[in-house]
């Protein structure tokens, strides 16, 4: 049985209304497979920065995010347990404390994940600004720090780092 794989793209900054025409923008992406959207964000702890949200639900990401479009990437033959195993393995590579807005961001995760699932690449325009910005140091300093940790990821971090929440689950 094959399962559709889609990438959901979110605008992260109001200037995208103008910069998109120039072929650049600040975008967040997630990968939908089996009715779950997987994405990556930063936090200060040495565990996975990969999190799940309801597909296309920008409210779960926070007020800086606005759904832009979906890109159908292809199909995968992998089962749900196999995909969950891949997410666990990718979590070691995409830890929250290793997030970098330009060098290791959500789009890098999306690209790696869809390549495993489908053998295809993320369209280059999605991460073009990060690739350009990586060569221009002032770009990184100009971007808001709150983009590092989407609200949905912060909820996961809070659950994993709150001793009372951990005690309640045991």
Structural class: alpha+beta
Q: What string gives the helices and strands in order?
A: EHEEEHEHHHHHH
**Beta-strand share of residues:** 15-25%
Number of strands: 5
Placed side by side, the strands forming the largest sheet appear as 4-3-2-1-5
Rounded to an integer, what's the Rg over CA atoms?
Answer: 16 Å
Shape descriptor reads globular
* Count of DSSP-assigned helices: 8
Uncertain ranges:
none
What report would you give on this structure?
- It is a single chain.
- By secondary structure, this protein is an alpha+beta fold.
- About 40% of the residues lie in helices and about 20% in strands.
- The chain contains eight helices and five strands, in the order βαβββαβαααααα.
- It has a five-stranded antiparallel β-sheet.
- A hairpin with a 2-residue loop joins β2 (about 25-35) and β3 (about 35-40).
- The longest helix has 14 residues, at about 80-95.
- The mean pLDDT is about 85.
List keywords for this structure.
five-stranded antiparallel sheet, globular, 5 strands, 170 residues, alpha+beta
């Amino acid at each position: 049985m094959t399962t559709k794989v889609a990438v959901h793209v979110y605008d992260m900054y109001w200037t995208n209304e103008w910069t998109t025409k120039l072929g650049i923008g600040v975008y967040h992406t997630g990968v939908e497979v089996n009715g779950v959207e997987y994405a990556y964000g930063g936090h200060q702890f040495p565990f996975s920065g990969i999190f799940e949200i309801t597909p296309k639900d920008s409210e779960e990401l926070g007020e800086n995010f606005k759904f832009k479009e979906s890109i159908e990437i292809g199909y995968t033959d992998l089962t749900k347990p196999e995909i969950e195993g891949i997410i666990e393995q990718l979590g070691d590579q995409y830890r929250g404390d290793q997030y970098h807005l330009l060098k290791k961001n959500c789009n890098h995760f999306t690209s790696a994940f869809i390549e495993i699932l489908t053998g295809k690449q993320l369209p280059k325009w999605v991460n073009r600004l990060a690739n350009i910005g990586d060569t221009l140091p002032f770009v990184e300093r100009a971007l808001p720090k709150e983009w590092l940790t989407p609200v949905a990821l912060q909820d996961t971090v809070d659950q994993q780092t709150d001793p009372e929440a951990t005690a309640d689950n045991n």
